Protein backbone atom coordinates (compact mmCIF):
# COMPACT_ATOMS: atom_id res chain seq x y z
CA UNK A 1 0.00 0.00 0.00
CA UNK A 2 1.47 3.37 -1.05
CA UNK A 3 0.76 6.10 1.52
CA UNK A 4 1.89 9.62 2.38
CA UNK A 5 3.58 10.41 5.69
CA UNK A 6 0.76 12.60 6.98
CA UNK A 7 -1.53 9.54 6.92
CA UNK A 8 0.90 7.33 8.88
CA UNK A 9 -1.39 7.29 11.95
CA UNK A 10 -4.00 5.34 9.96
CA UNK A 11 -1.57 2.53 9.18
CA UNK A 12 -0.07 1.54 12.53
CA UNK A 13 1.38 -2.02 12.44
CA UNK A 14 0.77 -2.26 8.70
CA UNK A 15 3.29 -2.60 5.92
CA UNK A 16 3.34 0.47 3.65
CA UNK A 17 5.46 2.07 0.95
CA UNK A 18 6.41 5.74 1.05
CA UNK A 19 7.83 7.67 -1.90
CA UNK A 20 10.23 10.20 -0.39
CA UNK A 21 13.62 11.87 -0.25
CA UNK A 22 16.40 11.46 2.27
CA UNK A 23 16.51 14.59 4.44
CA UNK A 24 19.34 13.38 6.69
CA UNK A 25 20.69 10.22 8.28
CA UNK A 26 22.65 8.80 11.17
CA UNK A 27 24.08 5.31 11.41
CA UNK A 28 26.25 2.91 13.35
CA UNK A 29 27.46 -0.61 12.55
CA UNK A 30 24.12 -2.24 13.24
CA UNK A 31 21.41 0.38 12.82
CA UNK A 32 20.69 3.33 10.53
CA UNK A 33 18.20 6.17 11.08
CA UNK A 34 16.89 7.78 7.90
CA UNK A 35 14.96 11.04 8.12
CA UNK A 36 12.58 10.74 5.19
CA UNK A 37 10.42 13.54 3.81
CA UNK A 38 7.71 13.20 1.19
CA UNK A 39 6.25 16.72 1.06
CA UNK A 40 3.35 15.82 3.33
CA UNK A 41 5.66 15.43 6.34
CA UNK A 42 8.78 13.92 7.85
CA UNK A 43 9.23 10.46 9.36
CA UNK A 44 12.16 8.50 10.74
CA UNK A 45 12.94 5.21 9.06
CA UNK A 46 14.78 2.73 11.27
CA UNK A 47 16.94 0.18 9.42
CA UNK A 48 18.23 -2.72 11.53
CA UNK A 49 20.99 -4.75 9.89
CA UNK A 50 19.92 -7.97 11.55
CA UNK A 51 16.39 -7.56 10.07
CA UNK A 52 17.09 -6.37 6.52
CA UNK A 53 20.33 -8.16 5.67
CA UNK A 54 23.69 -6.95 4.32
CA UNK A 55 22.58 -5.55 0.98
CA UNK A 56 19.73 -3.32 2.10
CA UNK A 57 21.67 -2.20 5.15
CA UNK A 58 24.59 -1.18 2.92
CA UNK A 59 22.14 0.75 0.72
CA UNK A 60 20.73 2.55 3.78
CA UNK A 61 24.22 3.49 4.99
CA UNK A 62 25.31 4.88 1.64
CA UNK A 63 22.15 6.72 0.58
CA UNK A 64 22.93 10.42 0.04
CA UNK A 65 20.99 13.55 0.98
CA UNK A 66 17.99 14.24 -1.31
CA UNK A 67 18.18 10.87 -3.03
CA UNK A 68 14.65 9.87 -4.03
CA UNK A 69 13.43 6.41 -3.12
CA UNK A 70 10.55 4.09 -2.30
CA UNK A 71 10.89 2.91 1.28
CA UNK A 72 8.81 -0.04 2.45
CA UNK A 73 8.30 -0.91 6.09
CA UNK A 74 5.91 -1.18 9.02
CA UNK A 75 4.50 1.95 10.71
CA UNK A 76 4.99 1.91 14.47
CA UNK A 77 3.97 4.21 17.27
CA UNK A 78 6.91 6.16 18.67
CA UNK A 79 6.41 8.49 21.60
CA UNK A 80 9.82 10.15 21.20
CA UNK A 81 9.31 11.34 17.64
CA UNK A 82 7.62 14.76 17.34
CA UNK A 83 5.34 13.15 14.78
CA UNK A 84 4.45 10.16 16.96
CA UNK A 85 5.36 7.43 14.42
CA UNK A 86 8.34 5.77 12.82
CA UNK A 87 8.90 3.33 9.99
CA UNK A 88 10.59 -0.06 10.64
CA UNK A 89 12.25 -0.36 7.24
CA UNK A 90 12.18 -3.63 5.28
CA UNK A 91 13.21 -2.48 1.83
CA UNK A 92 14.70 0.54 0.07
CA UNK A 93 14.39 1.07 -3.68
CA UNK A 94 16.49 3.97 -4.98
CA UNK A 95 14.70 6.02 -7.66
CA UNK A 96 17.31 8.69 -8.35
CA UNK A 97 20.60 9.26 -6.59
CA UNK A 98 21.35 12.85 -5.56
CA UNK A 99 25.04 13.74 -5.45
CA UNK A 100 26.69 16.80 -3.88
CA UNK A 101 23.48 18.42 -2.63
CA UNK A 102 24.58 21.99 -1.90
CA UNK A 103 22.55 22.61 1.27
CA UNK A 104 24.28 20.49 3.88
CA UNK A 105 23.37 20.22 7.57
CA UNK A 106 26.02 22.86 8.42
CA UNK A 107 25.05 26.55 8.69
CA UNK A 108 24.82 28.58 5.44
CA UNK A 109 24.57 32.34 4.97
CA UNK A 110 21.30 33.92 3.75
CA UNK A 111 22.64 34.91 0.30
CA UNK A 112 23.72 31.32 -0.38
CA UNK A 113 20.36 30.02 0.77
CA UNK A 114 18.51 32.60 -1.35
CA UNK A 115 20.56 31.59 -4.42
CA UNK A 116 19.42 28.04 -3.71
CA UNK A 117 15.83 28.92 -2.87
CA UNK A 118 14.53 26.26 -5.30
CA UNK A 119 16.22 23.64 -3.08
CA UNK A 120 16.05 25.44 0.29
CA UNK A 121 12.25 25.06 0.14
CA UNK A 122 12.79 21.36 0.89
CA UNK A 123 14.16 22.03 4.38
CA UNK A 124 12.08 21.26 7.44
CA UNK A 125 11.91 24.89 8.48
CA UNK A 126 10.85 26.20 5.05
CA UNK A 127 8.34 23.37 4.77
CA UNK A 128 6.82 24.48 8.09
CA UNK A 129 6.58 28.13 7.01
CA UNK A 130 4.90 27.18 3.71
CA UNK A 131 2.38 25.01 5.54
CA UNK A 132 1.53 27.91 7.87
CA UNK A 133 1.19 30.23 4.86
CA UNK A 134 -1.21 27.74 3.34
CA UNK A 135 -3.24 27.52 6.55
CA UNK A 136 -3.55 31.33 6.69
CA UNK A 137 -4.81 31.33 3.10
CA UNK A 138 -7.28 28.55 3.85
CA UNK A 139 -8.53 30.29 6.99
CA UNK A 140 -8.88 33.57 5.07
CA UNK A 141 -11.22 32.03 2.52
CA UNK A 142 -13.14 30.32 5.31
CA UNK A 143 -13.54 33.52 7.32
CA UNK A 144 -14.74 35.71 4.45
CA UNK A 145 -17.02 33.07 2.99
CA UNK A 146 -18.65 32.54 6.38
CA UNK A 147 -19.10 36.29 6.78
CA UNK A 148 -20.90 36.53 3.44
CA UNK A 149 -18.14 38.13 1.36
CA UNK A 150 -17.77 37.43 -2.35
CA UNK A 151 -14.28 36.88 -3.77
CA UNK A 152 -13.59 39.29 -6.61
CA UNK A 153 -10.38 39.40 -8.65
CA UNK A 154 -9.19 42.89 -9.58
CA UNK A 155 -6.90 43.29 -12.61
CA UNK A 156 -3.11 43.17 -12.31
CA UNK A 157 -2.44 45.42 -15.29
CA UNK A 158 -3.87 48.83 -14.46
CA UNK A 159 -3.88 52.43 -15.59
CA UNK A 160 -4.01 53.97 -12.10
CA UNK A 161 -1.85 54.15 -8.98
CA UNK A 162 -3.89 54.07 -5.73
CA UNK A 163 -0.94 54.19 -3.32
CA UNK A 164 1.03 57.02 -4.99
CA UNK A 165 3.18 57.15 -8.08
CA UNK A 166 6.67 56.75 -6.61
CA UNK A 167 6.69 52.95 -6.31
CA UNK A 168 5.16 51.90 -9.60
CA UNK A 169 6.26 49.18 -11.95
CA UNK A 170 5.58 50.76 -15.30
CA UNK A 171 5.12 48.72 -18.43
CA UNK A 172 3.62 49.16 -21.88
CA UNK A 173 0.08 48.06 -22.68
CA UNK A 174 0.49 48.10 -26.44
CA UNK A 175 0.65 51.88 -27.06
CA UNK A 176 -0.61 52.94 -23.62
CA UNK A 177 1.25 53.31 -20.33
CA UNK A 178 0.29 50.71 -17.75
CA UNK A 179 1.38 49.66 -14.26
CA UNK A 180 1.47 46.44 -12.30
CA UNK A 181 -1.13 46.71 -9.55
CA UNK A 182 0.00 48.16 -6.19
CA UNK A 183 -3.41 47.44 -4.70
CA UNK A 184 -6.74 46.27 -6.07
CA UNK A 185 -8.62 48.62 -3.77
CA UNK A 186 -10.16 51.01 -6.29
CA UNK A 187 -11.61 48.13 -8.29
CA UNK A 188 -12.79 46.50 -5.07
CA UNK A 189 -14.73 49.67 -4.28
CA UNK A 190 -16.56 49.27 -7.59
CA UNK A 191 -17.15 45.59 -6.74
CA UNK A 192 -18.52 46.47 -3.27
CA UNK A 193 -21.15 48.69 -4.93
CA UNK A 194 -22.21 45.67 -6.97
CA UNK A 195 -21.89 42.84 -4.41
CA UNK A 196 -21.93 44.53 -0.97
CA UNK A 197 -19.10 42.75 0.80
CA UNK A 198 -16.16 41.59 -1.30
CA UNK A 199 -12.57 40.50 -0.85
CA UNK A 200 -9.65 39.99 -3.16
CA UNK A 201 -6.52 37.97 -2.71
CA UNK A 202 -3.72 38.38 -5.17
CA UNK A 203 -0.23 39.57 -5.96
CA UNK A 204 0.68 43.26 -5.74
CA UNK A 205 3.85 45.01 -6.84
CA UNK A 206 5.85 47.88 -5.40
CA UNK A 207 9.12 49.14 -6.83
CA UNK A 208 10.28 50.03 -3.33
CA UNK A 209 13.93 50.78 -2.80
CA UNK A 210 13.65 49.51 0.78
CA UNK A 211 15.95 46.68 1.77
CA UNK A 212 14.40 45.69 5.09
CA UNK A 213 13.11 42.51 6.68
CA UNK A 214 9.52 43.70 6.00
CA UNK A 215 9.66 44.66 2.33
CA UNK A 216 9.10 42.58 -0.77
CA UNK A 217 8.81 43.86 -4.32
CA UNK A 218 6.06 41.36 -5.10
CA UNK A 219 3.76 40.44 -2.23
CA UNK A 220 0.25 39.06 -1.75
CA UNK A 221 -2.52 41.15 -0.31
CA UNK A 222 -6.00 40.35 0.99
CA UNK A 223 -8.28 43.32 0.35
CA UNK A 224 -11.83 43.31 1.71
CA UNK A 225 -14.16 46.19 0.82
CA UNK A 226 -17.60 46.77 2.34
CA UNK A 227 -20.54 48.99 1.37
CA UNK A 228 -22.37 50.75 4.26
CA UNK A 229 -19.50 49.97 6.66
CA UNK A 230 -18.01 52.90 8.50
CA UNK A 231 -14.67 53.47 10.15
CA UNK A 232 -15.26 51.72 13.51
CA UNK A 233 -17.10 48.76 12.01
CA UNK A 234 -14.16 48.29 9.66
CA UNK A 235 -11.80 47.87 12.64
CA UNK A 236 -14.10 45.24 14.12
CA UNK A 237 -13.95 43.15 10.94
CA UNK A 238 -10.16 43.42 10.97
CA UNK A 239 -9.72 42.25 14.56
CA UNK A 240 -12.14 39.36 14.01
CA UNK A 241 -10.30 38.34 10.84
CA UNK A 242 -6.80 38.49 12.34
CA UNK A 243 -7.91 36.62 15.49
CA UNK A 244 -9.52 33.92 13.39
CA UNK A 245 -6.43 33.24 11.26
CA UNK A 246 -4.15 33.12 14.31
CA UNK A 247 -6.49 30.71 16.10
CA UNK A 248 -6.72 28.52 12.96
CA UNK A 249 -2.94 28.27 12.74
CA UNK A 250 -2.78 27.36 16.44
CA UNK A 251 -5.39 24.67 15.90
CA UNK A 252 -4.09 23.17 12.65
CA UNK A 253 -0.33 23.79 12.61
CA UNK A 254 0.95 22.70 16.03
CA UNK A 255 3.67 20.55 14.47
CA UNK A 256 4.91 23.37 12.23
CA UNK A 257 4.88 25.95 15.05
CA UNK A 258 6.85 23.47 17.12
CA UNK A 259 9.38 22.92 14.30
CA UNK A 260 9.89 26.69 14.16
CA UNK A 261 10.23 26.99 17.94
CA UNK A 262 7.38 29.54 18.01
CA UNK A 263 6.27 30.73 21.43
CA UNK A 264 2.61 29.77 21.09
CA UNK A 265 1.60 31.37 24.41
CA UNK A 266 2.04 34.72 22.67
CA UNK A 267 -0.33 33.62 19.88
CA UNK A 268 -2.98 32.30 22.28
CA UNK A 269 -3.53 35.88 23.48
CA UNK A 270 -4.47 37.08 19.99
CA UNK A 271 -8.23 37.39 20.47
CA UNK A 272 -10.47 40.33 19.51
CA UNK A 273 -10.86 43.12 20.56
CA UNK A 274 -7.49 44.77 19.88
CA UNK A 275 -6.35 48.03 21.51
CA UNK A 276 -6.64 51.34 19.62
CA UNK A 277 -4.45 54.42 19.97
CA UNK A 278 -4.77 57.65 17.99
CA UNK A 279 -1.87 59.03 15.99
CA UNK A 280 -1.88 62.07 18.32
CA UNK A 281 -1.47 59.88 21.40
CA UNK A 282 1.13 57.75 19.65
CA UNK A 283 3.23 60.89 19.02
CA UNK A 284 2.89 61.87 22.69
CA UNK A 285 3.86 58.38 23.76
CA UNK A 286 6.93 58.39 21.51
CA UNK A 287 8.04 61.74 22.94
CA UNK A 288 7.73 60.29 26.46
CA UNK A 289 9.83 57.33 25.32
CA UNK A 290 12.60 59.69 24.25
CA UNK A 291 12.00 59.75 20.47
CA UNK A 292 12.65 63.47 20.15
CA UNK A 293 13.14 63.53 16.37
CA UNK A 294 9.54 62.69 15.44
CA UNK A 295 6.98 65.48 15.03
CA UNK A 296 3.25 65.66 14.40
CA UNK A 297 2.85 65.19 10.65
CA UNK A 298 5.73 62.71 10.21
CA UNK A 299 5.14 59.10 9.22
CA UNK A 300 6.33 56.41 11.62
CA UNK A 301 9.44 54.38 10.91
CA UNK A 302 10.03 50.79 12.00
CA UNK A 303 11.59 51.78 15.39
CA UNK A 304 8.56 53.96 16.21
CA UNK A 305 6.10 51.20 15.33
CA UNK A 306 8.07 48.69 17.37
CA UNK A 307 8.17 50.98 20.41
CA UNK A 308 4.38 51.46 20.26
CA UNK A 309 3.69 47.75 19.69
CA UNK A 310 5.85 46.77 22.69
CA UNK A 311 3.30 48.28 25.07
CA UNK A 312 0.73 45.64 24.06
CA UNK A 313 0.56 41.87 23.80
CA UNK A 314 -1.95 42.06 20.94
CA UNK A 315 -1.82 43.87 17.60
CA UNK A 316 -2.62 47.58 18.05
CA UNK A 317 -4.56 49.93 15.76
CA UNK A 318 -3.03 53.36 15.24
CA UNK A 319 -5.90 55.56 14.03
CA UNK A 320 -6.49 59.06 12.63
CA UNK A 321 -3.22 59.75 10.81
CA UNK A 322 -2.57 63.19 9.33
CA UNK A 323 -4.35 63.62 5.99
CA UNK A 324 -1.12 64.83 4.38
CA UNK A 325 0.75 61.53 4.77
CA UNK A 326 -2.05 59.23 3.57
CA UNK A 327 -3.44 58.45 0.08
CA UNK A 328 -6.01 60.67 -1.66
CA UNK A 329 -9.07 58.45 -1.13
CA UNK A 330 -9.35 58.51 2.68
CA UNK A 331 -12.38 60.08 4.39
CA UNK A 332 -11.47 63.02 6.66
CA UNK A 333 -12.58 62.89 10.31
CA UNK A 334 -15.94 64.70 10.67
CA UNK A 335 -14.76 67.43 13.02
CA UNK A 336 -11.07 67.52 12.07
CA UNK A 337 -10.07 68.00 8.42
CA UNK A 338 -6.38 67.45 9.15
CA UNK A 339 -6.76 63.77 10.07
CA UNK A 340 -8.39 60.86 8.23
CA UNK A 341 -10.58 57.92 9.31
CA UNK A 342 -7.88 55.35 8.82
CA UNK A 343 -5.97 52.79 10.86
CA UNK A 344 -2.79 50.81 10.51
CA UNK A 345 -2.67 47.56 12.46
CA UNK A 346 0.75 46.99 14.02
CA UNK A 347 1.67 43.39 14.88
CA UNK A 348 3.37 42.55 18.20
CA UNK A 349 7.02 41.52 18.59
CA UNK A 350 8.42 44.03 16.10
CA UNK A 351 6.75 42.66 12.94
CA UNK A 352 5.40 46.08 12.00
CA UNK A 353 2.34 47.11 10.02
CA UNK A 354 0.30 44.16 8.75
CA UNK A 355 -2.87 46.07 7.76
CA UNK A 356 -3.57 49.47 6.24
CA UNK A 357 -7.22 50.46 5.94
CA UNK A 358 -9.71 53.33 6.01
CA UNK A 359 -13.15 54.65 5.35
CA UNK A 360 -13.22 55.98 1.76
CA UNK A 361 -14.38 59.39 0.58
CA UNK A 362 -17.92 59.01 -0.76
CA UNK A 363 -18.64 62.67 -1.56
CA UNK A 364 -18.12 63.39 -5.26
CA UNK A 365 -16.95 67.02 -4.82
CA UNK A 366 -14.40 66.20 -2.13
CA UNK A 367 -12.98 63.29 -4.11
CA UNK A 368 -12.63 65.50 -7.22
CA UNK A 369 -10.77 68.05 -5.13
CA UNK A 370 -8.41 65.40 -3.74
CA UNK A 371 -7.67 63.94 -7.17
CA UNK A 372 -6.67 67.42 -8.33
CA UNK A 373 -4.61 68.16 -5.22
CA UNK A 374 -2.69 64.94 -5.75
CA UNK A 375 -2.07 65.75 -9.40
CA UNK A 376 -3.83 62.58 -10.61
CA UNK A 377 -5.29 62.29 -14.09
CA UNK A 378 -9.05 62.90 -14.16
CA UNK A 379 -9.27 60.69 -17.24
CA UNK A 380 -7.71 57.67 -15.55
CA UNK A 381 -10.00 58.07 -12.51
CA UNK A 382 -13.20 58.87 -14.38
CA UNK A 383 -14.72 55.46 -13.66
CA UNK A 384 -13.73 55.71 -9.98
CA UNK A 385 -15.42 59.14 -9.73
CA UNK A 386 -18.58 57.69 -11.22
CA UNK A 387 -18.93 55.39 -8.20
CA UNK A 388 -19.73 58.64 -6.33
CA UNK A 389 -22.18 59.79 -8.96
CA UNK A 390 -24.63 56.89 -8.93
CA UNK A 391 -25.86 56.08 -5.43
CA UNK A 392 -22.72 56.76 -3.42
CA UNK A 393 -22.61 55.23 0.08
CA UNK A 394 -20.18 55.27 3.01
CA UNK A 395 -17.82 52.35 2.59
CA UNK A 396 -14.58 51.05 4.05
CA UNK A 397 -11.96 48.43 3.50
CA UNK A 398 -8.45 47.35 4.25
CA UNK A 399 -5.45 45.44 2.95
CA UNK A 400 -3.59 42.76 4.90
CA UNK A 401 -0.09 41.89 3.72
CA UNK A 402 0.14 38.09 3.66
CA UNK A 403 3.91 37.75 4.02
CA UNK A 404 4.25 40.05 7.03
CA UNK A 405 1.40 38.16 8.66
CA UNK A 406 3.06 34.80 7.94
CA UNK A 407 6.35 36.14 9.36
CA UNK A 408 4.68 37.26 12.56
CA UNK A 409 2.60 34.13 13.15
CA UNK A 410 5.50 31.80 12.27
CA UNK A 411 7.96 33.88 14.25
CA UNK A 412 10.47 34.07 11.37
CA UNK A 413 12.66 37.13 11.26
CA UNK A 414 12.53 38.08 7.57
CA UNK A 415 9.72 38.12 4.96
CA UNK A 416 12.05 36.46 2.43
CA UNK A 417 11.25 33.11 4.11
CA UNK A 418 7.47 33.58 3.92
CA UNK A 419 6.91 33.45 0.13
CA UNK A 420 8.12 30.58 -2.07
CA UNK A 421 10.20 32.69 -4.46
CA UNK A 422 10.78 36.15 -2.99
CA UNK A 423 11.27 39.15 -5.24
CA UNK A 424 13.61 41.47 -3.37
CA UNK A 425 15.61 44.54 -4.22
CA UNK A 426 18.43 43.12 -6.41
CA UNK A 427 16.98 39.61 -6.54
CA UNK A 428 15.05 38.09 -9.43
CA UNK A 429 16.78 34.67 -9.24
CA UNK A 430 15.71 31.92 -8.91
O1 LIG B 1 -0.82 50.09 3.71
P1 LIG B 1 -0.90 49.66 2.27
O2 LIG B 1 -0.05 50.38 1.31
O3 LIG B 1 -2.45 49.79 1.89
C1 LIG B 1 -3.01 49.64 0.67
O4 LIG B 1 -2.45 49.27 -0.32
C2 LIG B 1 -4.50 49.85 0.66
N1 LIG B 1 -4.93 50.22 -0.69
C3 LIG B 1 -5.19 48.58 1.14
C4 LIG B 1 -6.68 48.72 1.17
O5 LIG B 1 -7.18 49.50 1.95
N2 LIG B 1 -7.38 47.96 0.37
O6 LIG B 1 -0.59 48.11 2.16
C5 LIG B 1 -1.36 47.17 2.91
C6 LIG B 1 -0.47 46.14 3.55
C7 LIG B 1 0.53 46.68 4.56
O7 LIG B 1 -0.06 46.91 5.81
C8 LIG B 1 1.57 45.57 4.58
O8 LIG B 1 1.13 44.51 5.40
C9 LIG B 1 1.57 45.10 3.16
O9 LIG B 1 0.33 45.49 2.59
N3 LIG B 1 2.69 45.67 2.41
C10 LIG B 1 3.81 45.02 2.11
N4 LIG B 1 4.23 43.76 2.40
C11 LIG B 1 5.45 43.37 1.96
N5 LIG B 1 6.26 44.16 1.22
C12 LIG B 1 5.88 45.42 0.89
N6 LIG B 1 6.68 46.16 0.14
C13 LIG B 1 4.63 45.90 1.35
N7 LIG B 1 3.94 47.06 1.20
C14 LIG B 1 2.77 46.90 1.85
MG1 LIG C 1 0.36 51.26 4.89
Quick overview of this protein structure:
With 430 residues, this protein is α+β, with helices and mostly antiparallel strands. The protein contains 14 helices and 19 strands.
Structure description:
This protein has two domains: 2-96, Nucleic acid-binding proteins (OB fold (Dihydrolipoamide Acetyltransferase, E2P), Beta Barrel), CATH 2.40.50.140; 117-417, Bira Bifunctional Protein, Domain 2 (BirA Bifunctional Protein, domain 2). The two termini are 37 Å apart. With 430 residues, it is an alpha+beta fold. It contains 14 helices and 19 strands. The radius of gyration is 26 Å and the shape is elongated. Strands 7-11-12-19-18-17-14-13 form an eight-stranded mixed beta sheet. A five-stranded mixed barrel has the order 2-3-4-6-5. A three-stranded antiparallel beta sheet has the order 8-10-9, with no helix packed on it. Helix 5 packs across helix 7 (231-252) and helix 5 packs across helix 14. The longest helix has 23 residues, at 124-146.
Amino acid sequence: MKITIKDASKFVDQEVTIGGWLASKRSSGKIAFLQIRDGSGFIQGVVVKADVGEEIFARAKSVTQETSMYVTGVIQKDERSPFGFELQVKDIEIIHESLDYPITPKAHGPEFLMDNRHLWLRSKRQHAVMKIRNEIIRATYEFFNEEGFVKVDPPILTGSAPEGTSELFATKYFDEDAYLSQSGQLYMEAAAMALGKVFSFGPTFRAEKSKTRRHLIEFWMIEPEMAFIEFKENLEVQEQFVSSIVQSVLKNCQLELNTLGRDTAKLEQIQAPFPRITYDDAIKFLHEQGFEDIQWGDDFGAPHETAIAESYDKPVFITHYPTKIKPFYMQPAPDREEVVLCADLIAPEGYGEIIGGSERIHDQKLLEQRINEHGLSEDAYKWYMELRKYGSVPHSGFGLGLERTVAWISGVEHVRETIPFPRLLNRLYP
